[in-house]
Design goal:
This protein has three helices and five strands. It has a single domain, classed as 2-Layer Sandwich (S16 Ribosomal Protein, Chain: A). It is an alpha+beta fold. About 30% of the residues lie in helices and about 40% in strands.
Length: about 80
């Protein structure tokens, strides 16, 4: 199963995350299938590859709770529902 989840990077005590598509069996910081966005919780900066996210979601990728909240705020999930 493909999951959309966060991959941590950045300095100690200054985390940033990439939103990635990975196999559900791989490690948190393992090699992703695709990098689909960026999230910085310290500044609430979000950059998304909306086309890539919609494509993965249409093919059955399951977002984690945190990624689902980020996508809901960016109205990406509305686009997936509208295209179905």
């Amino acid at each position: 199963m493909i999951k959309l989840r966060l991959k941590r990077f950045g300095k100690k005590r200054e985390p940033s995350y990439r939103i990635v598509a990975v196999s559900s069996l791989s490690r948190r910081d393992g090699r992703p299938l695709a990098e689909l966005g960026f999230y910085n919780p310290r500044t609430d900066e979000v950059r998304l590859n909306v086309e890539g996210l919609v494509e993965h979601l249409r093919h059955g990728a399951q977002p984690t709770d945190t990624v689902r909240d980020i996508l809901r705020k960016a109205k990406v999930l509305d686009q997936v529902a509208a295209q179905s």
